[in-house]
Amino acid sequence: MPQHVQGVIAPGRNEPVRVETIVIPDPGPGEAVVKIQACGVCHTDLHYKQGAINDEFPFLLGHEAAGIVESVGEGVTDVVPGDFVILNWRAVCGTCRACLRGRPWYCFATHNAKQKMTLLDGTELSPALGIGAFAEKTLVAAGQCTKVDPAVAPEVAGLLGCGVMAGIGAAINTGNVGRGDTVAVIGCGGVGDAAVVGARLAGAAKIIAVDIDDRKLEKAREMGATHTVNSRTADAVEAIRELTGGFGADVVIEAVGRPETYEQAFYARDLAGTVVLVGVPSPEMKLELPLLDVFGRGGSLKSSWYGDCLPSRDFPMLIDLHQQGRIDLAAFVTETIGLGDVEKAFARMHEGDVLRSVVVL
Ligand code: APR
Ligand code: ZN
Ligand code: ZN
Q1: What are the residue boundaries of the Enoyl reductase (ER) domain, all occurrences included (predicted)?
Q2: How large is the C-alpha radius of gyration of the chain?
């Protein structure tokens, strides 16, 4: 029997979001219905609401979530009802060239649930990143569910589904930060702070946090940054060079998504250093670099897609580390809110003192 639950929809471009009754079909083959316990409010949800991603309104927002599998469709064996899971954006096929080469985050045949969730009048909903978890329940492809230890608070576990994984993964997977490395992180929001946590986890000797907001820098220090640079008052590249004996950092992680910070990241790396781009630029942005600087400085310029993560490998590992007290994922939760507070949480994103507002159900 299809179920009626409450969910947060974005009805049209820049219109306020609102809680509506939505219809969740029974899971079909390869699908699962998940009872959502917590879902973080991410910038991407705001971008959906603004029509910046596509115009397939109405959207069912929310995609950084953890919950309990309620029911599964035919052929689903990896998860069973009662499992505590973190949701990821897309199930991967496991057999395409990208999957076979160990890069499933670039899978050519990712999929979400085939069936659609709808409004009461039958209008089909577009779930944000194929998830739609600002809702009491949601329908996903079973492969989007990764089982983890249920002892972890859902509002903490859910964060691994997007921003925190993107940041930690940028450091440990894409940047391959090693013991003793010097690391600079430009932009210390949720993603940048997670990169700081990842760098510390990987054994970096120096972690230099760069931001234009002192409050963000203070928080980055709590997360493990050893040095901070306010790039409103100091030249970020020069400051990073000074702090690294004149060389530049072994790994520079850009977590803003702007041409000027991409450029800073490029010049702040040591010879043969690695630049990791995790901030998402908007489509019109361009970066011009003298080719001789690209050639002459060596090293690599990498982009990090979803922290280049393998959910089934990385989610349980990070949950273990959190439970052992070796990383503190709870430090990313600024506030817990209700389903009706998502619009307010969007407004608070720009206030500077919020890493993550998390909807708890
Ligand atoms: N130089 C340094 N820091 C900056 C600059 C700048 N020119 N402009 C903004 N910042 C800082 C902000 O002060 C803030 O602390 O960058 C941080 C951005 O953080 P959030 O807005 O909280 O964004 P976050 O969720 O961390 O995501 C960062 O990564 O995954 C992507 O789409 C995401 O592009 C976004 C980026
Ligand atoms: Zn997100
Ligand atoms: Zn694949």
Answers
A1: 12-361
A2: 20
